[in-house]
Amino acid sequence: MTQLFPGRFPATRLRRTRAESWSRRLVAETALSPNDLIWPVFVTHGDRNEPIASMPGVERYSLKNIGRAAKEAYDLGIPLIALFPYTEPDKRSDDGREACNMDNLVCRAIGEIRSHAPDIGVMADVALDPYTSHGQDGLVDDMGRILNDETVAVLCRQAITQARAGCHMIAPSDMMDGRIGTIRSALDEEGFQAVQIMSYAAKYASAFYGPFRDAVGSRGVLKGDKKTYQMDPANSEEALREVAMDLAEGADSVIVKPGMPYLDIVSRVKQQFGVPTFAYQVSGEYAMLVAAAQSGALEHDAAIFESLLAFKRAGADGILSYFAPKAARILMQHDTIKP
Ligand code: PBG
């Protein structure tokens, strides 16, 4: 065949390695595996699961069903489950004391999971919002200010309560100053040296948490916003300072949250610190993707996989995602997703 442009084209043509599926698979720089997935799960009292209107396809699991769901997740290869409770309104109080009740929903769910799926990791959130009547993550004074050090004292008790119930990992999502170091010492003093801390180190005051607040029942009750403790979406240097401090205080791994709008932060954190770094694809991101797929604007599975792979490409070691079981199921069936 005659060359159309003799001598003018480069020797290297990137389309050559893209031409066939086998070649695309061979040169793929990142891959997604069930090992990368952390499944956030909502729990509720009673015998029946409940749908969550703003998160189609996600349910609150009843205590009765949570053990079986965890076993299924384990069988799909998911390493870790993150628990969030829907606390009954009459158990919510100004001081969120239900958080430190050994018999609360989270503690009972931990027990259920440990007995049905003894080899899956169990992570429990540390923050007061599912337990407070005002929906804030911390204690509030008469002026409506969030009290830092007083809150940290309660968070230590909450962490110990959850560790006693048998969780493997504590994830402080409250964004109080100094909580990682204080919780680390409190756990150590109680003999829980082996319990890991995954810190929500860079957690932004985001509009993407709306459906989560429905799921844990704090949306209607939340007074004001969380801008005095969660980060300003305008900032990234500050995220690196948060991460540096949490690591110095003893965090084993860190979370950047939300996920998709904050991939730049994921990337900088991983590059700068080289520590286990996780991204949280939050409830609003879930709702957005599902709504777009339901309207026919996006192809559901392809869009989910692309979004999850993007976290890996940005440097995340794993992703907290409500899509975890669905994604793991598809990955298991295919062994590899055709690039
Ligand atoms: C609060 C907490 C929130 C989420 C996890 N822990 C919401 C908030 O800060 O108001 C959000 C997760 C999601 O949107 O999926 N401690």
UniProtKB/TrEMBL annotation:
CDD domains the record matches: ALAD_PBGS_aspartate_rich
Cross-referenced InterPro entries: ALAD, ALAD_AS, Aldolase_TIM
PANTHER family reported for this sequence: DELTA-AMINOLEVULINIC ACID DEHYDRATASE (PTHR11458:SF0)
Catalyzed reaction equations: 2 5-aminolevulinate = porphobilinogen + 2 H2O + H(+)
Signal peptide: none
Name this polypeptide is given: Delta-aminolevulinic acid dehydratase
Organism: Iodidimonas muriae
Pfam families, per the entry: ALAD
Domain of life, per lineage: Bacteria
Assembly: Homooctamer.
